[in-house]
Amino acid sequence: MLTRPSAPTAAFITDAPRVAGSEVWLRDLLPLLGGYGVQPSLFLPRRETLTPFAEAFADTDVALHWYDDPAALPELTRPYHLRVVQAWEPRTYAQLLPRLAAPRVVVSHDQLDYHYPAPIRALYREIYRVTKARAIARADGVITVSDWGAAFLSGRMHLDGVQGMTNGVDTCRFRPADAPERAALRESLGFGGFTVLVPGRFTLEKNQLLGVLAARHAPELDFVFVGDMDSGFGKLAQTLKARLSLHNVRFLGRRWDMPELYRAADVLLQPTLAENQSLVTLEAMSSGLAVVTTAIPAQTELVRGGVDGLCIPADPALIATALSALRQHPERARAFGLSARQRVLERHTAQQSAARLAELLKSFAE
């Protein structure tokens, strides 16, 4: 007869080549799991790009293991109650899941659906179906970080055993600023006018080019972009700024002071075309920042239009109009920010996410 382990152990496995949102999720949630009755360990590929990420676990109860050969993982993780795979590459799931001992759980942060024009969107769905979804089907269970994502994987991709959970953030690190702190931050960052913050990786689906085009329609606003300016789309965004002779657009590159940037800005713009459950959006909301974003399911699950911010079609002129309206009515922007902060406190704290994750892991461990 199987009995529920009092403190199940979970081996988390990633093939991450670098740090992105899925790794931030691991960094923030794994150290909290012990408080909810699950003891996690983390298996990382030996890569220099992950060294700073690994150092974040130094003072936690999370056991960290480097691996050189993925073929060794089935034996290394056999003593654990549960194996949890969070992979970037479809081949990792395809090659690893059949060889791991059961139960095997996949955690999916995939963006899943790309809101491009219909033929391209359908093509991306089919590519996902025959690559990652087919490989993930070998797992004994799937966890994804939104209710929308769980419905998509169950309904569109026909995967069994899919469970949803909400993402959460550290509400002490991401918090609103009082007036003196905000004034000091704005001065140090050179924020003068109504500042629209646009953070994120420069990729086609994150749609920063739409943000640059929106700046052309709203010269009275200051647009501040944060992200990998050395990437192809980062360079393209800078070229577009130059071609349009925009003087209200700044590129800050990669930054490690995002909490301060959120507290200093007036509004977050996220013109994204693909998300699962966006940590950037939650970080901004937790910081008391009004959000203007595209009306895709993953974003409307977080941002209640007209309550926490504005959900707008992906059109530069419409987004510029929405941002300009918030500049003209700062009291409404402040009300959105207060509501957004409360929404996170009620539904999206890191502790709430860790509790739900532990609950799901225990159910799979049974």
3D architecture notes:
By secondary structure, the protein is of the alpha/beta class. The protein has 2 domains: 9-168 and 349-365, Glycogen Phosphorylase B (Rossmann fold, 3-Layer(aba) Sandwich), CATH 3.40.50.2000; 179-347, 3-Layer(aba) Sandwich (Rossmann fold). The chain has 15 helices and 13 strands. The strands form 2 sheets. The chain has a 7-stranded parallel sheet with strand order 3-2-1-4-5-6-7, sandwiched between helices. The longest helix has 19 residues, at 118-136. Residues 1-5 have low confidence and may be disordered.
Task: Briefly summarize what is shown.
Helices cover 43% and strands 17% of the residues.
What attributes does this structure have?
single chain; 366 residues; alpha/beta; Rossmann fold; six-stranded parallel beta sheet; globular; disordered N terminus
User: In what range is the share of β-strand residues?
Assistant: 15-25%
Distance between the termini: 11 Å
CATH superfamily of the largest domain: Glycogen Phosphorylase B
Q: Largest beta sheet: what is the strand line-up?
A: 3-2-1-4-5-6-7
Number of strands: 13
SSE blueprint and pairings:
Elements: E1 9-14, H1 21-33, E2 39-45, H2 51-55, E3 63-67, H3 73-76, E4 82-86, H4 90-96, E5 104-108, H5 118-136, E6 141-144, H6 147-155, E7 162-164, H7 179-189, E8 195-199, H8 208-217, E9 222-226, H9 232-244, E10 249-251, H10 258-264, E11 267-270, H11 279-286, E12 290-294, H12 297-300, E13 309-312, H13 316-328, H14 330-347, H15 350-365
Parallel strand pairs: 1-2, 1-4, 2-3, 4-5, 5-6, 6-7, 8-9, 8-11, 9-10, 11-12, 12-13
Helix pairs in contact: 1-15, 4-5, 7-10, 8-9, 8-13, 11-14
